Amino acid sequence: MVQGAFTDQVLALRARGSRSPACVKVIGGLENGAEVLFGIRVSGDLVGELAAIRDTGRSATVVACTDGAVHRLPKERFLGFLDRNPEAWRLLAAMLGDRLDWANQRRLDFTGYPVDRRLARVVVQLAGRHGHPVEGGVDLGVALTQEELGKLVGAAKESAVKAVRELRDAGWIRTGYRRIIVADLEGLTEFAMVSR
């Protein structure tokens, strides 16, 4: 899916087996070439539902970060299902509400916190949503570069790299290639000022 494109399908993401969850990045681009990472979608999520409901072009570009499976639902079939199932409309509204809450929180964080704390807040939230236990901590569950983490919190690459280094030096996280392990979730949560 490409930002601005008009297509007539909704994508439902699902895992390809138990070891390969679906994962896509939702990226918005500006005319000047700048990009922001709006969010991460995983197995069980829908992508493209707003364009189908509003009959508009895509609001973002979607890029796969794993080789999970995708079910393509024609727009008419998707909307027909919703119309026949009021509970599905309520679930969709709840999902969209969760995404709006996430976006609003990012804007609040951008206004009220420095980069290191914004990044810590996102890492805590991603670990809670997508993470899984590993030896010595919690794997974030999604493969992101430090630059992509920066794009999630509205920070330049250099600022994001510095913030990751600070969190790593404090012992709250460990990093590898496109991988973050939260080594001290309690300490990181306290630093991030995230209420549980």
TrEMBL record:
Keyword Membrane: no
CDD domains in alphabetical order: CAP_ED
Gene Ontology CC entries for this record: cytosol
Residue span, HTH crp-type domain: 113-186
Gene Ontology MF: a single term: DNA-binding transcription factor activity
A Pfam family per the record: cNMP_binding
Domain of life: Bacteria
Annotated Cyclic nucleotide-binding domain residues: 24-99
Alphabetically ordered keywords of this record: DNA-binding, Transcription, Transcription regulation
Name the record gives this protein: Crp/Fnr family transcriptional regulator
Source organism of this protein record: Actinomadura harenae
Classification lineage: Bacteria, Bacillati, Actinomycetota, Actinomycetes, Streptosporangiales
